[in-house]
Every structure is written in structure tokens, then in C-alpha cells.
TrEMBL record:
This is Uncharacterized protein. It comes from Staphylococcus edaphicus. The chain crosses the membrane at residues 26-47. Keywords: Membrane, Transmembrane, Transmembrane helix. Pfam families: bPH_10 (PF23494), CysS_C (PF23493). InterPro entries: CysS_C, PH_YqeB. Residues 138-186 form the Cysteinyl-tRNA ligase anticodon binding domain. Residues 7-120 form the YqeB PH domain.
């Protein structure tokens, strides 16, 4: 406890004085138990946020952020890695999945190629994306409003709101991706 008390900001804390005053074995074990329980909860949260994919011969089962999605192989147009995101496009040109992953592109390509999924080296629609500007005349007023709200959600780090607005845009026939907090869009043809 003496080491902690030497740290300028933390050392003045009355909690450490109390702990030092009542120092005993049961207190140490109680603190170890609390830290252990907090660690379990943090691990459970991180595990629920990680992208998990089961690759089967005729479909993919995707678990991401406590949501489960099944995508039939015959509906998939392309699978590729876009920077740190794994992207799965379906045949109508929509992004069915865009999720961060730490797996390397080579590893992902190997996994999907084993079951003959359509792996691509890059987005087949890469050239169709352009930077969204406020009041873009090539899209509807409703789409501009959603993109404005989405930009605010990005700036305020409201990830779930951003994801909901992305889904709304998909329903309007717009695919959106972010590059350094800037929105790039393409119209689904």
C-alpha cells in the first residue's frame, strides 16, 4: 500500500487510508474477488462484441453484437476485406455484413475459399463510392437527413445509432462506409 500512497493524485485518496488502516487478509481476498468478478463481466462483454462466423458448405452463420444472421451461399455476390472490415455483399449490391475483424486477409480468404465462397481482392463497387456532402442532389431529402443524423452519431461515438441509420439507408438503396469519420456513399443500382 505504501507504493500506491506515493503516487501524487491517487495517494491522497481517503479510500487507501481506510484500506491501510483495516488491512487484513479478508480485505485482500475481498478485493481479489471483486477484481475477478469485474474481469468476468468485461470478458463477457468483449466476447459478445466480437465477430464470429461459421462457414458451412451452403450458408454462413454470423454472430455479431448479440445478433445472429444466416446468409445463403447462393445469395452472396462477394466477400472481401476493406481495411479492417469484413464485408459481405449480396447479389442485389447491398452490404449484408460490414464488421471489424482482426483476422488477416489471407486467413479469411483461405477460410472462404475452402468452401468456394466468392472471395474478392477488393470491393467490386469501389469506384462507385463518393464522399457525401450536405444536401447531396443525387439522393432524396430523406436520405440526406439520415446521413446528417448518421454523421452526428459518428461524431458523438454513438455506434448503435450509426448502425441503425446505416440499415435505414440500405432500405433506401444507399450503401455507406466511413473513412476517418467521413461518410462515403454509393447508390444501389
Amino acid at each position: 500500500m505504501l507504493f500506491v500512497k506515493k503516487i501524487p493524485i491517487i495517494g491522497d485518496n481517503k479510500i487507501f487510508d481506510l484500506i491501510e488502516h483495516y488491512h487484513s487478509d479478508w480485505l485482500v481476498w475481498m478485493l481479489v474477488g471483486i477484481v475477478f468478478i469485474v474481469g468476468i463481466f468485461i470478458s463477457m462483454y468483449i466476447y459478445s462484441e466480437v465477430l464470429k462466423i461459421t462457414v458451412e458448405r451452403d450458408k454462413l452463420r454470423v454472430h455479431f453484437k448479440d445478433k445472429q444472421t444466416e446468409i445463403l451461399k447462393k445469395d452472396i455476390m462477394a466477400i472481401f476485406k476493406d481495411k479492417k472490415d469484413l464485408v459481405i455483399l449480396i447479389k442485389d449490391g447491398r452490404e449484408r455484413i460490414r464488421a471489424k475483424t482482426d483476422y488477416s486477409e489471407d486467413r479469411l480468404q483461405s477460410i472462404f475459399n475452402q468452401e468456394w465462397y466468392p472471395w474478392k481482392d477488393e470491393d467490386p463497387y469501389k469506384a462507385d463510392f463518393y464522399q457525401w456532402q450536405l444536401n447531396d442532389t443525387s439522393i432524396t431529402e430523406q436520405a440526406n437527413e439520415i446521413l446528417y443524423k448518421r454523421r452526428e452519431a459518428i461524431r458523438e461515438d454513438k455506434e448503435s445509432m450509426r448502425d441503425e441509420l446505416t440499415a435505414d439507408l440500405s432500405e433506401l438503396g444507399i450503401v455507406v462506409k466511413d473513412i476517418k469519420k467521413v461518410q462515403y456513399i454509393r447508390l444501389i443500382k
